[in-house]
Specification:
- The chain is mostly helical.
- It has two domains: 95 residues, 434 Repressor (Amino-terminal Domain), CATH 1.10.260; 35 residues.
- It is built from seven helices and no strands.
- The chain is globular.
- The relative contact order is 0.13.
């Protein structure tokens, strides 16, 4: 039973809009592929598809079958469950904070993934702090 005041994801199926699960799984495929520095063509070749089909899966425009998801998981060296991580069942769905949503959206971008991957490699704490201050200033719209 859904918790009171919990925000429920839209799980209805309409032909004009991608399903919430398809969007989530697609974004996780894209994030994992980019993390492995794999192109859409590389993934497509590994699972016997065209890169256009991979694009459609990543956007959630097309649903990925269970067998194809399994093949993608093998090619991306991840368990099938990885693609559902972060997507809660309706009965357990709780509203996430705006900050958490922003972080998840950020990490789904190629720039966000690259920053998250490279930031820990900056060994000097003072340089990290300056970079963080720069990003904070740019994000606030100040010059």
């Amino acid at each position: 039973m859904p918790r009171p005041n919990a925000v429920q994801p839209d799980l209805s199926i309409t032909p004009s809009q991608p399903h919430a699960v398809d969007l989530h799984v697609g974004s996780r495929i894209r994030m994992r592929r980019k993390f492995l520095h794999m192109s859409q063509s590389d993934l497509a070749d590994a699972i016997g598809l065209t890169f256009q089909q991979v694009q459609k899966y990543e956007r959630g425009a097309n649903r990925i079958s269970s067998s194809m998801l399994y093949q993608a998981a093998v090619a991306l060296k991840a368990p099938v469950s990885y693609f559902f991580d972060g997507f809660e069942e309706v009965s357990d769905f709780e509203q996430t904070s705006e900050s958490e949503d922003a972080i998840n959206r950020f990490l789904r971008t190629s720039e966000g993934l690259e920053l998250a991957e490279n930031f820990p490699r900056i060994s000097r704490g003072g340089l990290r702090r300056k970079l963080l201050d720069l990003v904070r200033t740019l994000g606030s719209g100040e010059d």
